[in-house]
Design a protein that fits this description.
Length: about 260
């Protein structure tokens, strides 16, 4: 009979090791046993055993002496996205916003205290940005993340800050709780959030939160672009109105779908 402690505090070290190896493999964009051992701090024998098990279960593939994360994660990704309640509604509005602005437009949801990009489309005038679908970002420094934080209970925001911190990415990044809480209050009043070169110098973003009738947060929708185009009334008013309108459409359609 299995008598293992399954309380929330219990952790399985073997699973933890596999997770760390997978994370390292992804960040290194493929690696050999020796490289992974050096990166993770585990012995070569341990790394090899975990990779062999992951390969047997098709979570990694081996090409020569190099291991890579397998396409099985694409299946997991598509399954997970389809189970997000407003996946298709958000996708439609992000596409429309992209056509309207000609810029990069995205939709983000929160998971484990980070923002996860669920959709991303590039308009005809859009610059190339490093973010991609599935990418995770800090919430405190992105317009999308701040829009989401503005709709969460204070206790949840505190939990996220305690866990993730307030990392400084640029000179403009908010790194104090007091300043962040002031900004979140302004976002709640205006229903729009701004990233003024807080994630990347030279890049600005405007976002609006999407919530349901019970004020539960779906996520946030945004448009991003260079400071040369995101300035003045266009940045603070025109694009702000555009993302608020897109967020409102998502909310209304989501309400109809859930009835």
């Amino acid at each position: 009979m299995d008598t293992q402690d399954t309380s929330p505090g219990r952790r399985i070290q073997a699973v933890q090791t596999s997770c760390e190896i997978l994370d390292a493999l992804r960040n290194m964009e493929g690696a050999g046993v020796s490289e992974l051992a050096a990166e993770t701090g585990y012995s070569k024998a341990t790394v090899h055993s975990h990779l062999a098990t992951l390969a047997d279960n098709e979570f990694v593939v081996k090409r020569g002496d190099t291991y890579e994360v397998s396409l099985k994660f694409v299946d997991f990704s598509e399954y997970t996205k389809q189970n997000v309640a407003i996946y298709e509604l958000a996708k439609q509005e992000v596409k429309k916003l992209t056509a309207e602005t000609g810029e990069v437009c995205q939709f983000m949801v929160e998971e484990h205290g980070q923002g996860v990009y669920l959709h991303k489309f590039r308009g005809e005038n859009a610059i190339h940005t490093a973010s991609y679908t599935g990418d995770r970002k800090d919430l405190h420094c992105t317009a999308l993340g701040k829009a989401i934080l503005s709709q969460l209970p204070h206790e949840r925001v505190e939990e996220i800050i305690d866990r993730r911190g307030l990392t400084k990415h640029t000179p403009n990044t908010i790194t104090s709780r007091e300043r962040l809480y002031e900004e979140l209050e302004t976002i709640r009043e205006q229903n729009v959030a701004f990233d003024d070169e807080e994630t990347l110098e030279g890049l600005r973003c405007v976002a609006a939160p999407t919530t349901d009738r019970e004020s539960n947060t779906y996520g946030a929708i945004s448009t991003s672009g260079p400071t040369s185009r995101f300035k003045g009334d266009r940045f603070r008013e025109e694009l702000a109105d555009a993302v608020r309108s897109a967020a409102n459409v998502i909310e209304v359609n989501a309400t109809q779908v859930r009835r």
